[in-house]
Amino acid sequence: MEDAVRDSTRARIVRTAADLLTHGGREAVTTRAVAAAAGVQAPTIYRLLGDKVGLLDAVADHGFQAYLTQKGARPAGGDPVDDLRAGWDLHIGFGLANPALYALMYGDPRPGPPPQAAARAMTMLRALVRRIAEAGRLRIGEEQAVHLVHAMACGTVLTLLAMAERDPALSDLARDAALAAVIADAPAVATPGPVGAAVALRAVLTDTDVVTNGERALLGEWLDRIAAAGTR
What we know:
The protein is mainly α. Helix content is 72%, strand content 0%.
């Protein structure tokens, strides 16, 4: 019972802080204001969430959860490239609809592990990129593709949020540029050259059991080096 009350109180505090953030910006999220709006004493916030950084981290995690709920509502389609394109549009739409929350989630990066929900969002992006790699459609290595798409999407949202008059075409232009940088028009394995074959084989390397773990690790290192050479 005590755990249930504790979890319920913590959730109410986080929802209250998220609401204050949405309507008043980060400056509105003070310990005193959150405590008053949530109907708790300030020490309760410190006990459940730590300092203000812990509170803001919890709000950011709450925002990621909302994003993942929205993103997870769309079923995967047959074409992973189409799914990546749709995921980009969803990301941009979420950021523009929730500017204060998005700035908290992405505009203040710090060293160290990301919030759990943020890690799950990246896992979903990696899964999409892996499907594209398995189809032989990647121009570059998987990890580089993940970080490039993530960086361009985040940069696009933050740029649009800073604009006095938003350019409605900017997101589509940035999305198409990102996709052109990481995705081949046709399956890479159907074209001459080692890079596309290396990327495609690397994507399914864990599916084979005809090599030992040591051999798999060594082959993976070689394939990564071949894939990286294609970006030079």
